[in-house]
Write a structure and sequence with these properties.
This protein is mostly helical. The chain folds into 3 domains: 66 residues, no CATH class; 37 residues; 79 residues, no CATH class. The chain is built from 8 helices and 4 strands. It has a 4-stranded antiparallel sheet. Helix 2 crosses helix 3. The termini are far apart.
Length: 221
Protein backbone atom coordinates (compact mmCIF):
# COMPACT_ATOMS: atom_id res chain seq x y z
CA UNK A 1 0.00 0.00 0.00
CA UNK A 2 1.39 3.43 -0.98
CA UNK A 3 2.27 5.83 1.84
CA UNK A 4 0.15 8.61 0.32
CA UNK A 5 -2.93 6.44 0.38
CA UNK A 6 -2.35 5.55 4.02
CA UNK A 7 -1.95 9.19 5.03
CA UNK A 8 -5.06 10.13 3.13
CA UNK A 9 -7.07 7.37 4.86
CA UNK A 10 -5.94 8.45 8.31
CA UNK A 11 -6.88 12.05 7.58
CA UNK A 12 -10.29 10.97 6.39
CA UNK A 13 -10.76 8.85 9.51
CA UNK A 14 -9.90 11.80 11.75
CA UNK A 15 -12.36 14.00 9.84
CA UNK A 16 -15.09 11.42 10.29
CA UNK A 17 -14.46 11.32 14.03
CA UNK A 18 -14.83 15.10 14.27
CA UNK A 19 -18.23 15.07 12.52
CA UNK A 20 -21.14 15.29 15.00
CA UNK A 21 -23.56 12.37 15.06
CA UNK A 22 -26.73 12.98 13.08
CA UNK A 23 -29.76 13.80 15.23
CA UNK A 24 -32.96 11.89 14.74
CA UNK A 25 -36.18 13.87 14.45
CA UNK A 26 -37.71 14.58 17.87
CA UNK A 27 -34.51 13.75 19.75
CA UNK A 28 -32.29 16.07 21.80
CA UNK A 29 -34.77 18.92 22.20
CA UNK A 30 -32.21 20.63 24.44
CA UNK A 31 -29.01 22.00 23.02
CA UNK A 32 -26.40 24.47 24.14
CA UNK A 33 -26.42 27.99 22.76
CA UNK A 34 -23.15 29.62 21.77
CA UNK A 35 -23.29 31.55 25.05
CA UNK A 36 -23.57 28.32 27.01
CA UNK A 37 -27.33 28.66 27.73
CA UNK A 38 -29.54 25.63 27.29
CA UNK A 39 -32.00 25.97 24.42
CA UNK A 40 -35.31 24.13 24.46
CA UNK A 41 -38.25 23.73 22.13
CA UNK A 42 -41.65 25.37 22.63
CA UNK A 43 -43.21 22.07 23.68
CA UNK A 44 -40.62 21.77 26.46
CA UNK A 45 -41.60 25.16 27.86
CA UNK A 46 -45.27 24.29 27.52
CA UNK A 47 -44.77 21.16 29.59
CA UNK A 48 -42.69 23.01 32.17
CA UNK A 49 -45.19 25.89 32.56
CA UNK A 50 -48.25 23.61 32.29
CA UNK A 51 -49.40 25.51 29.20
CA UNK A 52 -50.28 24.60 25.65
CA UNK A 53 -47.89 25.09 22.74
CA UNK A 54 -50.37 27.63 21.36
CA UNK A 55 -50.05 29.67 24.53
CA UNK A 56 -46.26 29.59 24.26
CA UNK A 57 -46.58 30.90 20.72
CA UNK A 58 -48.85 33.70 21.93
CA UNK A 59 -46.35 34.65 24.64
CA UNK A 60 -43.67 34.79 21.96
CA UNK A 61 -45.82 37.08 19.82
CA UNK A 62 -46.49 39.26 22.85
CA UNK A 63 -42.77 39.63 23.41
CA UNK A 64 -42.75 37.79 26.72
CA UNK A 65 -40.66 34.87 25.49
CA UNK A 66 -37.83 35.64 23.08
CA UNK A 67 -36.51 32.64 21.11
CA UNK A 68 -33.30 32.28 19.13
CA UNK A 69 -33.05 31.17 15.54
CA UNK A 70 -30.92 28.05 15.21
CA UNK A 71 -30.18 25.64 12.41
CA UNK A 72 -32.90 23.38 13.86
CA UNK A 73 -35.46 26.20 14.09
CA UNK A 74 -36.64 28.45 16.92
CA UNK A 75 -35.28 27.53 20.33
CA UNK A 76 -35.85 29.22 23.70
CA UNK A 77 -33.11 29.95 26.26
CA UNK A 78 -34.30 27.94 29.25
CA UNK A 79 -33.17 30.14 32.14
CA UNK A 80 -34.08 33.42 30.45
CA UNK A 81 -37.51 32.07 29.47
CA UNK A 82 -38.29 30.94 33.01
CA UNK A 83 -37.31 34.33 34.40
CA UNK A 84 -39.32 36.14 31.73
CA UNK A 85 -42.43 34.08 32.44
CA UNK A 86 -42.15 34.58 36.21
CA UNK A 87 -41.75 38.33 35.66
CA UNK A 88 -44.79 38.29 33.35
CA UNK A 89 -46.91 36.56 36.02
CA UNK A 90 -45.81 39.04 38.69
CA UNK A 91 -46.61 42.00 36.45
CA UNK A 92 -50.01 40.54 35.59
CA UNK A 93 -50.80 40.03 39.27
CA UNK A 94 -49.71 43.52 40.29
CA UNK A 95 -51.24 45.34 37.34
CA UNK A 96 -54.22 47.58 38.24
CA UNK A 97 -57.47 45.95 37.14
CA UNK A 98 -59.57 48.93 36.10
CA UNK A 99 -60.38 48.19 32.47
CA UNK A 100 -63.71 46.73 31.46
CA UNK A 101 -61.97 43.59 30.27
CA UNK A 102 -60.31 43.10 33.65
CA UNK A 103 -63.57 43.72 35.47
CA UNK A 104 -65.30 41.17 33.29
CA UNK A 105 -62.48 38.71 33.92
CA UNK A 106 -62.73 39.23 37.67
CA UNK A 107 -66.48 38.76 37.46
CA UNK A 108 -66.05 35.51 35.58
CA UNK A 109 -63.46 34.32 38.10
CA UNK A 110 -65.79 35.18 40.97
CA UNK A 111 -68.66 33.32 39.32
CA UNK A 112 -66.41 30.31 38.74
CA UNK A 113 -65.30 30.38 42.39
CA UNK A 114 -68.93 30.61 43.51
CA UNK A 115 -69.93 27.64 41.37
CA UNK A 116 -67.02 25.62 42.72
CA UNK A 117 -68.00 26.51 46.28
CA UNK A 118 -71.63 25.52 45.68
CA UNK A 119 -70.54 22.25 44.12
CA UNK A 120 -68.31 21.51 47.11
CA UNK A 121 -71.16 22.28 49.52
CA UNK A 122 -73.54 20.06 47.56
CA UNK A 123 -71.02 17.23 47.64
CA UNK A 124 -70.60 17.58 51.41
CA UNK A 125 -74.37 17.61 51.93
CA UNK A 126 -74.73 14.49 49.80
CA UNK A 127 -72.07 12.67 51.82
CA UNK A 128 -73.86 13.74 54.99
CA UNK A 129 -77.19 12.42 53.72
CA UNK A 130 -75.54 9.13 52.77
CA UNK A 131 -73.98 8.81 56.20
CA UNK A 132 -70.43 8.98 54.86
CA UNK A 133 -69.66 12.18 56.73
CA UNK A 134 -70.98 13.79 59.90
CA UNK A 135 -71.05 17.36 61.07
CA UNK A 136 -68.86 18.28 64.00
CA UNK A 137 -71.90 19.43 65.95
CA UNK A 138 -73.57 16.03 65.53
CA UNK A 139 -70.43 14.18 66.58
CA UNK A 140 -70.15 16.46 69.59
CA UNK A 141 -73.80 15.86 70.55
CA UNK A 142 -73.52 12.07 70.27
CA UNK A 143 -70.24 12.06 72.18
CA UNK A 144 -71.77 14.23 74.89
CA UNK A 145 -74.65 11.78 75.28
CA UNK A 146 -72.18 8.95 75.75
CA UNK A 147 -70.14 10.92 78.28
CA UNK A 148 -73.29 11.67 80.25
CA UNK A 149 -74.14 7.97 80.23
CA UNK A 150 -70.71 7.09 81.63
CA UNK A 151 -71.06 9.81 84.26
CA UNK A 152 -74.44 8.53 85.42
CA UNK A 153 -73.12 5.00 85.75
CA UNK A 154 -70.10 6.16 87.75
CA UNK A 155 -72.23 8.35 90.00
CA UNK A 156 -74.49 5.37 90.79
CA UNK A 157 -71.54 3.15 91.65
CA UNK A 158 -71.09 4.21 95.33
CA UNK A 159 -74.75 3.60 96.13
CA UNK A 160 -74.66 0.17 94.52
CA UNK A 161 -71.51 -0.79 96.46
CA UNK A 162 -72.06 0.83 99.84
CA UNK A 163 -73.99 -1.96 101.56
CA UNK A 164 -71.89 -4.81 100.15
CA UNK A 165 -68.56 -3.08 100.91
CA UNK A 166 -69.72 -2.20 104.44
CA UNK A 167 -70.51 -5.83 105.11
CA UNK A 168 -67.19 -7.09 103.77
CA UNK A 169 -65.05 -8.90 106.33
CA UNK A 170 -61.73 -7.61 104.97
CA UNK A 171 -60.17 -5.16 102.55
CA UNK A 172 -59.49 -7.99 100.12
CA UNK A 173 -63.16 -8.99 100.14
CA UNK A 174 -64.20 -5.35 99.60
CA UNK A 175 -61.76 -5.15 96.68
CA UNK A 176 -63.35 -8.19 95.05
CA UNK A 177 -66.81 -6.67 95.42
CA UNK A 178 -65.72 -3.34 93.89
CA UNK A 179 -63.88 -5.05 91.05
CA UNK A 180 -66.90 -7.16 90.16
CA UNK A 181 -69.14 -4.08 90.05
CA UNK A 182 -66.66 -2.16 87.89
CA UNK A 183 -66.50 -5.08 85.46
CA UNK A 184 -70.29 -5.01 85.20
CA UNK A 185 -70.11 -1.29 84.42
CA UNK A 186 -67.45 -1.82 81.74
CA UNK A 187 -69.44 -4.63 80.19
CA UNK A 188 -72.44 -2.35 80.00
CA UNK A 189 -70.41 0.36 78.34
CA UNK A 190 -68.87 -2.10 75.89
CA UNK A 191 -72.29 -2.51 74.35
CA UNK A 192 -72.06 1.02 72.96
CA UNK A 193 -71.77 0.98 69.18
CA UNK A 194 -71.65 3.55 66.41
CA UNK A 195 -75.26 4.11 65.39
CA UNK A 196 -75.73 5.51 61.86
CA UNK A 197 -79.46 5.83 62.51
CA UNK A 198 -78.81 8.39 65.24
CA UNK A 199 -76.81 10.59 62.87
CA UNK A 200 -79.41 10.12 60.13
CA UNK A 201 -82.12 11.24 62.57
CA UNK A 202 -80.22 14.41 63.36
CA UNK A 203 -79.66 15.17 59.68
CA UNK A 204 -83.35 14.64 58.93
CA UNK A 205 -84.34 16.98 61.75
CA UNK A 206 -81.91 19.64 60.54
CA UNK A 207 -83.07 19.39 56.91
CA UNK A 208 -86.68 19.60 58.05
CA UNK A 209 -85.96 22.72 60.08
CA UNK A 210 -84.13 24.33 57.14
CA UNK A 211 -87.02 23.55 54.81
CA UNK A 212 -89.52 25.04 57.26
CA UNK A 213 -87.42 28.19 57.61
CA UNK A 214 -87.26 28.58 53.83
CA UNK A 215 -91.04 28.22 53.57
CA UNK A 216 -91.53 30.83 56.32
CA UNK A 217 -89.24 33.23 54.44
CA UNK A 218 -91.22 32.71 51.25
CA UNK A 219 -94.47 33.41 53.09
CA UNK A 220 -93.06 36.66 54.45
CA UNK A 221 -92.00 37.72 50.95
Amino acid sequence: MAPGVLIESEAGLMADRKKPAAKKPGENTKEAAPSGAVLVMAKDLAEMFDLTSTRITQLRKDGVLIPQQTSAGLRYPLTASVRAYVRYLKDARNAPKTTSGSIEQRKNEAEADLKSAKAAIAELELKEMLGKMHRAEDVEAVTTDFVLLVRSLLMALPGRLAVDVAGAGSAAEASVIIRAEVNKLLEELSGYRYDPAEYARRVTERVGMSTQEDEDDEDED
